[in-house]
Amino acid sequence: MNYKETKYLVFDVESVPDSRLIKMVRYPDTDYSGEEAVRTYQAYLMEQSGGSSDFIPATFQYPVSICIAKLGENFTLLDIVSLDEPQFRAAEMTKLFWHGIESLYDHASYITFNGRGFDIPLLELMAYRYGIAAKRHFKDKFAGRYRFGTKHIDLQDVLSNYGAIRMNGGLNLLAKILGKPGKMGTKGNDVYDLFLQGKTQEINDYCIHDVLDTYFVFLRTRVVMREISIEQEADIIKAAREFLADNSERIPALKEYLDHWTEGEPWP
């Protein structure tokens, strides 16, 4: 594939708590195992949030899956890739990601859901950890760190009026409104347990599904912003569905997504 054909990169990151770092920073004087340190920190966060969340901050996590959908200029789906599959090594995934953003696809915009609040800060910290250069990203004020630019389009920002409302229901809600699968059993808080069980491919499949949901939400925002018509969106979605069917043997996660796809009409 010609790199220049890709105009948009829709991506998602799945991550797990860094048990070693949590023990070093939060519980240095204990004999906790790594998992005990994570569970203790989760219990603390749950208590501090009044029982609403035990989510561990990005500063204490590292990636275990990074999936990317490549789109053409007319928003058509060109390819889906999983970085460093099947090893899913944090350092290699981070290196590949920043090389792509800084060099191979420096002309492309990238699309996320809450990427500004989680995925990008996590990957910035991974670049810091491994000493990976991301010069343009950090030094060009109109690159991905500029909140109101077009280099990084965070759909949560777009659809929440840049944080004016809470996007309750998140990506799952927005996908299901469009008749797309959304969550299909696995949820974000299942990832750590799957990781402990060695189910890295299952985590990666979940990441691919989130990327696809993000893609279809992105398409609908382009309709709302009058960059494409609703009829053009329908044609793009039809082509995307054909891509998923044609590539489901190469990428088995696509079949599960198709199996849960509905052609729902808007209501009420």
Helix content: 40-55%
Please give the domain count: 1
**Text of the CATH class:** Alpha Beta
- Whole-angstrom Rg: 19 Å
> Sheet bearing the most strands, described?
5 strands, mixed
Could you state the order of secondary-structure elements as H and E? Answer: EHHEEHEHHEHHHHHH
Count of helical stretches: 11
* Strand elements, count: 5
Q: What's the rounded overall pLDDT mean?
A: 95
Describe this structure in words.
The chain has 268 residues and is an alpha/beta fold. The chain has eleven helices and five strands; from the N terminus they run βααββαβααβαααααα. The chain has one domain: Nucleotidyltransferase, domain 5 (2-Layer Sandwich), CATH 3.30.420. 47% of the residues lie in helices and 13% in strands. The protein has a five-stranded mixed β-sheet with strand order 3-2-1-4-5, with helices on both faces. Helix 1 crosses helix 2 and helix 3 packs across helix 4.
In short:
The protein is built from 11 helices and 5 strands. It has helices spanning 19-26, 34-48, 90-104, 115-130, 135-139, 155-159, 170-177, 191-196, 200-224, 230-246, 253-259; strands spanning 8-17, 61-71, 77-82, 109-112, 152-154. The model has no long low-confidence stretch (mean pLDDT 95).
SSE layout and pairing:
Blueprint: E1 8-17, H1 19-26, H2 34-48, E2 61-71, E3 77-82, H3 90-104, E4 109-112, H4 115-130, H5 135-139, E5 152-154, H6 155-159, H7 170-177, H8 191-196, H9 200-224, H10 230-246, H11 253-259
Provide tags for this entry.
alpha/beta; 268 residues
